[in-house]
Specification:
Elements: H1 4-8, H2 10-14, H3 20-32, H4 34-54, H5 61-72, H6 79-125, E1 132-133, H7 137-143, E2 162-172, E3 175-184, E4 187-195, H8 201-205, E5 216-222, E6 225-231, H9 235-246
Antiparallel strand pairs: 1-2, 2-3, 3-4, 4-6, 5-6
Helix pairs in contact: 3-4, 4-6
């Protein structure tokens, strides 16, 4: 019964709608409560399944054409009125196409950012967040050889406030990658690494800093790889860890 109040807010938590001051408390509870972590993982998997299902239908060009024809084919009382309506429809169509392209690009990027956040939450909620447990980068890095189709470097953490917990394989848009977990203070930070060319072109072309997330995140491209650093740590800590990776 103690966890019922937590589980009642899980969907709000996973959607990033929990107030920032409550996020750390919620993170700590989900990470340390087997019942809530299992429930969170189940809901994240359901959420991702729904997102995948939502991609299965896209309006075709023929559908758009029929809709346009239904607008411009109504009877007109005069040629001038008909010309004006046709011109207006054409303008609406062009503006709509441009808007759809812009929103489509942004929607694609936002969905990737959302999936990264889901992976972060699901991993921390798991009873086994890492497959290779080690604070030694020379142990963690070789573990990925043969498991993912690329190599990457890990930063030296000596004289820094960060500590490495370990890593695991992960997937984004069916693309294999590396998921590393770091600690700073009492906060967990996830670092995801994927091949740039394997990710959606809309993300590769432009990846501005995400908004509307309950986590701080930084993403960049380097050496043919795409990096994501995400966590409930401060933006300054996220930036500091990102800089360590950029310097490798």
């Amino acid at each position: 019964m103690v966890c019922e109040s937590w589980k009642a807010k899980l969907d709000t938590y996973l959607d990033g709608e929990v107030p920032p001051q409550e996020m750390r408390t919620f993170d700590s509870h989900v990470h340390n409560c087997p019942s809530c972590s299992a429930e969170a993982l189940s809901r994240v998997q359901l959420k991702r399944a729904i997102q995948v299902a939502g991609k299965r239908f896209n309006p075709s060009a023929e559908f758009r054409k029929r809709m346009l024809q239904s607008i411009v084919s109504k009877p007109r009382r005069a040629f001038r009125l008909g010309w004006m309506l046709a011109a207006t429809a054409a303008v609406i169509f062009v503006v709509g196409a441009l808007t759809s392209t812009y929103l489509g690009n942004r929607s694609s990027r936002d969905q990737v950012f959302s999936e990264i956040a889901d992976l972060h939450v699901a991993t921390l909620a798991s009873s086994s967040p890492v497959d290779v447990i080690s604070t030694d980068r020379h142990t963690v890095k070789p573990w990925f050889q043969g498991r993912i189709p690329f190599a990457f470097n890990l930063p030296e953490l000596q004289n820094s406030e960060f500590s490495l917990l370990g890593g695991r394989m992960t997937y984004l848009e069916q693309t294999p990658g590396a998921h590393l977990i770091y600690d700073v203070g009492k906060h967990h930070i996830s670092v995801f690494v994927f091949q740039e060319r394997s990710l959606p072109a809309k993300l590769r072309d432009s990846a501005p800093q995400p908004d509307k997330l309950s986590f701080n995140m930084e993403t960049w491209s380097q050496g043919g790889l795409r990096y994501f650093v995400i966590g409930d740590a401060s933006a300054a800590d996220i930036d500091s860890l990102a800089k360590l990776f950029k310097a490798t």
